[in-house]
Amino acid sequence: MALDVDFSHPLRGFDATVGLTVPDGATVALVGPSGAGKTTVLRVVAGLLRPARGAVSLDGESWLDTYAGIDLPPERRPVGYLFQEYALFPHLDVLANVRFGARRGADVDPLLERFQIAHLRRAHIRELSGGERQRVALARALAHDPAVLLLDEPLSALDAHTKAEVRIQLHELLRNLALPTILVTHDFEDAAALADHIGVLVNGRILQTGTASELVAAPADAFVASFTGANLLEGIAGPGANGLTEIVLDAGGTAWSTEPGHGRVGLAVYPWEVSLSRDVPDDSAVNHIRATVGSVVALGNRARVRVGPVVAEVTDASLERLALTEGDAVVASFKATAARLLPL
Question: Please, what are the domains in the chain?
C-alpha cells in the first residue's frame, strides 16, 4: 500500500509545497531545520490540518482531495502518530495510555509484551525513563492497528546514551512492521539510520531525495552538503593548473578540485575525507590547511577534530599516534577528488 501526498499550504514566511510517495513497507525521512514545514506534512496526512490545496491517498483510497471535497476526519484515517515529546497523559498509567489509542475492547497486552513494558502497566508516566516513555507512545500509536505510521522527531527527547540504544530498537521495529512510514527529524544521522529514503526539506520544499549514501555522494547544493555533515568552505573558483579548478577560499588560502567551477562556489568535503598530520604529508592529497586544533570530541572509537575551518574525523589510534591536543599546530589534508564544488 503506497501513501501518496501532494499539497500546498501557506505558512509563516513561505508556502509549503510538498509532493511525496511512500512505497509499501518503506520508511521515508524528511530532514531539515526547525520551521521548514516537516511537521506540517504529518498534520496533513493525519487530518489535523486541511491544506489550501492537496490530496492524500493510501493505495488509491482518497483521504483528502480538496478539489473533490473529500476530507476524512482524523478518526477515520488509519494512522498511528507518534508526537514529538510523545504527548502522553501524565494522570494515566501506562496501561490506560496504551488503551486510549486502542479500539474499544481491544486487547493491548500483546503490545505491552512486545515493547517490554508489561511490568510497567500500573506505573505513571512521570515515573518512566525517556526510553520507556517512547515505547509507551509507540505502543499507543500502534494500538488501533494503523495502516500508516507518522513519527515526529522520535529520538529528540532522549539523552545521547539512550538515543543510541533506542535508535537500534526503532530500526528493527520499523522493519518488522513494514508499514508506509514518514519520519521527520532535524538529525541526518537519525534519518540515515532509520529510513530507506530521505528528503531534505527547506522552506516548505524538498530540495533533494535519495538514500543516505546518495545524498552524501552527490549533494544537489551547498545546503544539502552541509546538512549531511560536510565541511563547507566558500570561495571563488576558476581554472587552475593540470586541469584542476582553483578555489581561492574566503577563509584564506587556496584549494583545488577535479570538478569544474567558476565564480562563487561552496567547496564541500566530508570529515572522514580529511587526514591530519604534523607536517605536509608526502601523498596524493593536494589540499593542505595549516591551523591549530580548536577542539577534540571523542565519538566512540573515533574522534572529531576541528582544525581551522574544517573538521576531520580520525580513529582513536590516529589521535593517540599524533598526540593531538587543543592549540597544537597541524595540517589538515584532503584530495582534489574529495572537494565537491556546489552552487551557493
Answer: 3-78+147-222 (3.40.50.300), 230-342 (2.40.50.100)
